Amino acid sequence: MSGSEGSSGHSDAHPPPTSAAEEREKKKEKARVSRTSLILWHAHQNDATAVRKLLEEDRSLVHARDYDNRTPLHVAAIHGWIDVAKCLLDHEADVNAQDRWKNTPLADAEGAKRFAMIELLKSYGGLSYGQNGSHFEPRPVPPPLPKKCDWEIDPTELDFSGAVLIGKGSFGEILKVSWRGTPIAVKRILPSLSDDKLVIQDFRHEVNLLVKLRHPNIVQFLGAVTEKKPLMLITEYLRGGDLHQHLKEKGALNPSTAINFALDIARGMAYLHSEPNVVIHRDLKPRNVLLVNTNADHLKVGDFGLSKLIRVQHAHDVYKMTGETGSYRYMAPEVFKHRKYDKKVDVFSFAMILYEMLEGEPPLSHYEPYEAARYVAEGHRPHFRAKGFIPELRELTEQCWAADMNKRPSFLEILKRLEKIKEILPSDHHWHIFAS
Asked: Catalyses which reaction (predicted)?
C-alpha cells in the first residue's frame, strides 16, 4: 500500500535546535504546502467545518485540483455531501468546473444518483456534461484486455487458511495466501471501503496499469477479483521481502552488490519509462522494491498504487500531478513544492535508494520524513560518508538527485553508466572492509 512512510532512521543524530520563530515559520510552510491536499481530503471526509475554515484562510482553495483535475466540489458531488457543497458554492466554487474526463460536478452527482445534490447544483446553474468515459462508471469497467476472463480470478480459488499479513495501508492490506497450491500476494481492499467511488477508481486504475506490464524486474500481475467483494489484486509472491527490511538487517551493501541491485531497479524503471506509454511510479522507495528470494540476487519494482500512465505526445511533456504524492524521504523537490513534474521524479528517488544502499541507513535519517523532504526542497542533499562511494558512483548519484530535473539522466543512461562502473570494480576486492 502506498502512502507517506512512517518515521524511519536512527535517533543518534539530531538537527540543530530551532528557535520559536523558526518553528512558527516551519509550521506556516507545512500548512501552505499541504492546504491543497487538505481541502480535497476534508471534502472527501464530509467535514464542512474544516472546509469552511480553510476557505476563510485562503479563498483560492475553492479552485484546488487533484491529479485528475477534480475540484473539492466534484468530490462533494460524487459523495452527496450537501453541507460541504453549499459551503464551496457560497465561496464561489465553479459549478461547471470540468475534470480530466471533462465531467462537471452535476454529471458526477447524476452518475452516483445523489438526488439532493443534483437539485442543489442545478439551483446554482449546474450543467450536466462529459459523463462519457468518466471515472464514475455506471456500467462495469471495460476490460483492458480483449478477454477479461484471462485475469479475473474466482475468489473461491484463494486459500486464506494460512494467510500471513505482509503489509497494511489506509485502503487495505497485503496478504500472502495460496492460489491453486502456489503462494501469492493479495492486495485486499478493506470491506468498509469497497463501495467508496474514489477507492474503486484507484483500484481499477492499478489493475488497468498492471495488466499491461511484462518485465523481469517488475512484480508480475497474476489477476484480480473485480466482480465480487472484497476487491483484490493478485501478484506473484517474492520470498525475499523488501529492500527496506533487507538494508535494516544487513546495513551498508558492498559496492558490487549495490551496483547489481541498482541495475535491477534501473532496468525495471527504464521499461516503465519507455515511450509512448510512460508509467511514472511516483513512490519509488526501498519498501516498494522486492527481493525475489532470500539469496538476494535479484530485485523487482512493485506497488503501483500511485503510478500514473501517461501517453507521451512530446518527449519533454511535463505534467501537473498531485504534489506530495509518495513518501517524503525519497520525494523529489518539485513534487514537495507542488511544481509541474515528469518521469524524472523517479530518477531522484532512485538516487536516494542508491545512497541508502551504500550508506546503510535512510537518507537524512536524523530528520523526520517531512522535515527531510523540506530540507531537500531547500537545496540540501545527504552527505556521503561511506568509503564504498567510488567517485563514479558518487557522481552518478549527485546527477540523479540534481535540483534541475532536466539535468538528471534517464534510466537508459543510468544503465549504461552502471554497467561501465561495474566493469572497473576490481574482481578480487574485499569491499566489506571499506563499507562504513
From this structure: L-threonyl-[protein] + ATP = O-phospho-L-threonyl-[protein] + ADP + H(+); L-seryl-[protein] + ATP = O-phospho-L-seryl-[protein] + ADP + H(+)
